[in-house]
Amino acid sequence: xxxxxxxxxxLAAVLGGCAAAPVSGTAPAxxxxxxxxxxxxxxxxxxxxxxxxxxxxxxLYEGTGLVGKSSMRAGPAGAAPSVRQDLPGLFGEGITVLGxxxxxxxxxxxxxxERDAKTLAELRRxxxxxxxxxxxxxxxxxxxxxxxxxxxxxxxxxxAPTGSVDVGRDQLNELECVGDAVYANVWQTEKILRIDAxxxxxxxxxxxxxxxxxxxxxxxxxxxxxxxxxGTDEFVITGKLWPKMFRVKFVPAP
Length: 254
Fold this sequence. Notes:
Blueprint: H1 4-20, E1 32-43, E2 50-56, E3 59-64, E4 71-76, E5 83-86, E6 92-98, E7 101-106, E8 111-116, E9 122-127, E10 135-138, E11 141-145, E12 150-154, E13 161-166, E14 172-178, E15 181-186, E16 191-196, E17 202-207, H2 214-217, E18 223-228, E19 234-239, E20 244-252
Parallel strand pairs: 1-17
Antiparallel strand pairs: 1-20, 2-3, 3-4, 4-5, 6-7, 7-8, 8-9, 10-11, 11-12, 12-13, 14-15, 15-16, 16-17, 18-19, 19-20
């Protein structure tokens, strides 16, 4: 026979056990909403179909696309490039610079070109499968996009794949590695994603709309090109066939 006292004790034990049960499956935090704060504008070659943008020291490197117009160029930001190498017969895509050498990938040609970082002279070519879109380097490895939701890690010497993460957002285009984050243009949008390189989780969404005026939009193509300014929290961003580059900060959206 269970007395009222026994029932009360049993209920207390059950309720106490429920209260002590661990909580699992906590949802990750929503991506931080950011916008661009324009600090200054710089000239940009309006004939450059920008596919990659990256600083190495004070030198700004740019890779351009389209067959017959693809190139890699380098020089001071906002000035005519001091060195340029064309890429005849191929459709150039993303670039990245690792000390004395640089890599430039191609869209559907399956070829990556290793270059001398000072002269941009071609050193060798390696092949890969799939499309090439964006490229940057993080923690001793290359990070490459192919237009899907996946970022592929590659060996910086052999270019062989060493792993990947799925971001859960497709159309990932030009990339910029900063610390433990990868910034990615989303093709055909004016949005930039900040991605955790280790997990692929999107930690920030940056609204980069409204940079060009109505008169500049007619001949311009999509936003594409992110270059972190060394030693600062600032970036230079531009787009394909844009007449301007913008030096910006990414700040919280209201």
